[in-house]
Structures are given as C-alpha cells and as structure tokens.
Amino acid sequence: MLSLNKKLRSGLRPLAAALTVLTLAAGAAHAADDALPKIPNKKPLRVGFAQTESNNPWRLAETKSFKDVASKCGWQVIITDANSSAAKQVSDIQSMIAQHVDLLVFPPREEKPLAPVVLQAKKAGIPVILVDRNIDQSMAKAGRDYITFIGSDFIDQGHRAADWLVKATNGKATIIELEGSTGASAANDRKKGFDEVIAKNPGMKIIASQSGDFARDKGRQVMETLLQAHPDVTAVYAHNDEMALGAIAAIKAAGKQPGKDIVLVTIDGTKGGLEAIKAGELGASVQSSPFFGPLACDVAQKYAKGETIPPWVKVSDRFYDKSNVDASMQYGY
Ligand code: AHR
C-alpha cells in the first residue's frame, strides 16, 4: 500500500509540475492582459480625438486646443465629430481602433455607453486618456483600464454655483434647473453638487429640472415651456452658459427681465457668458476649462517616459461674477 502510494505520488509529480507551469503561464498572460498599453516612442504619434459634437463655443475651443497643440507635441491628430450621438462616438472610436492609432483621447459623451469601447481599446493595445467627462467607474476604471481622466470637479462646480445663488438670493428662491445631456458625467455631477447645497437651504426650492442637452436652442425651448408652467420662478441654474443664454432669450420673450426678475447662475465661462454677466443679465458663471490639448500632451509625454500618472488629473476652475468680469474677459472663449 505504502509503495503504491509512493509510486502514485512520484507519477503525479510531473503532472503537478506541468500544472504549476500552466498556472504560472496563465497568471503571466493575465498580468499582460491587465497591463495598460504603452505609448509608442515615435514621431509623429497618431492620436485619435473623438469629439462629441461641435454645436457650442466650449466644444469648438476644446477641439481647437488639440489642433493647436499637435505640431508642438509631435502629434498627427485625427478628429471625428459624433454629432451629439453616443452611438456615433462609439463607432468613431471603433474605427480609430481599427486604424490602430497610437493613442486615443476623447470626452465620453455619456458615462455608460462609452465605457465598453475603452475596454476594447485596451484589448487592442491602444492607450486611452479621457478628457473633460469621465465614464462609469464600475464599468471601466481610470489607472487600470485607461491612463487617466483629465478634467474638472463637476460636483464642486455645482456646489460653487449653488453657494453663489444662496448668497445672491438671501437663501430664498424658486429655481428652474436646466440640465446638460442626459447620462453625461458633467450633467450628473453638476446636478448632484448643486442639489446637495440647495437641499441644505430650506428657503431654496427646485421647482422643475429638465434637460436642455447643453444646447442654446434646446435651453430656450425648455425654458419657454417651464416658464409657462411655473410663472413664480425666481432663479435659474443652467448646467452650461449656452443653455443659460437660451433661457435669457426665453425670459425676455416672456416680458421678464433676466438678472432682475429672474437671477441666473451657470457654468463654463464662455465669451457669451462673460458678456451676459457684464450686461447684468447673467449673475455668475463657474469656469469649466475646455483647453485639454496641452494637458493631454503633457500627461502623454510623462506617461511615455514611465512617470506615474494619478487616475484623476484635476483641473482647477475660476469663478466669474460682476465683481471680476471686466478683468476676466480675456479668459472667455
Ligand atoms: O462637459 C463639459 C460641458 O459640455 C460644457 O459645460 C458644455 O458647454 C459642453 O457641451
């Protein structure tokens, strides 16, 4: 019995060894799968920039910042425009993956639909940097599935807009909220931040909250309808300047005075927004910088050199109201 056991054990030894080799090999393959792709050391670097839409000054400034940085950074930038469709942005990125660009940089239009394509890029060995908006971190994670997210703290932007409004209205207002594109991190987090502060102020009430898709004309149309349903509105929080400018047009068309009858606060700091502050029609705008080209270039170069990149490269934002608008016009875009 003893010798049979011995025989069995010695017979099993090569099998166990083979299994160990297999396990180690599988582990190594897994580690390789998990490693973030590298940025190749070559010039020009073929960089895909997949824009969400080009229907407002913010988007145009963002795209321009990539065009402007290209030659300085040694990039050949391939630009696409998803025309406000998350599905088109996904297929734009898939076609860049098929062309095997060296680096993908993009603002995901919406948090969930754009997460799988980040994983597809990683599988194809293409490094990704997300700018401006982020994706759902339960679906794909910064630092693990893509290099990093470069962008503002949208929740904090919402806090700052709400803090200003509480002060400007002495803590008493009936508010219409014009939300950005449904499912976008910029809309989700700007709403979260603003609503958190408002909830702590019993005199402040959000009476309606609806998406204007970050677009001026949609903002005007939504405001027109909401003004009819809520003639008692005294304040508007728009998730971007363009929708606030649309709301200002709707308020004027309804025979009310923006800035007096209805106070407005918003986010972006576009030239149009700053001019509206100067004209007394818009109360304040929290800056949200669109100039990601140079930041993405810097991060890509550091990453290529092997430097550690944090999962969130945070952008800090200015704040504009009547107290500093004259000195701040130079920052408008
Ligand atoms: O994600 C940033 C937002 O998207 C900007 O506030 C807006 O203008 C843009 O369309």
The CATH homologous superfamily of the largest domain is named Response regulator
Give me the secondary-structure category. Answer: alpha/beta
What is the CATH topology classification name of the largest domain? Rossmann fold
Which ligands are bound? Answer: alpha-L-arabinofuranose
The CATH architecture category of the largest domain equals 3-Layer(aba) Sandwich
What CATH first level of the largest domain would be assigned? Alpha Beta
Assess the beta-strand content as a share of residues: 15-25%
Count structural domains: 2
Q: Describe the global form.
A: elongated
Give the distance, in angstroms, between the N- and C-terminal Cα atoms. Answer: 87 Å
Radius of gyration computed on alpha carbons: 25 Å
Mean pLDDT across all residues, rounded? Answer: 92
Number of DSSP E strands: 12
Biggest β-sheet: count, sense, barrel? 6 strands, parallel
* Count of runs of 4 or more consecutive helical residues: 11
Uncertain residue segments:
1-32
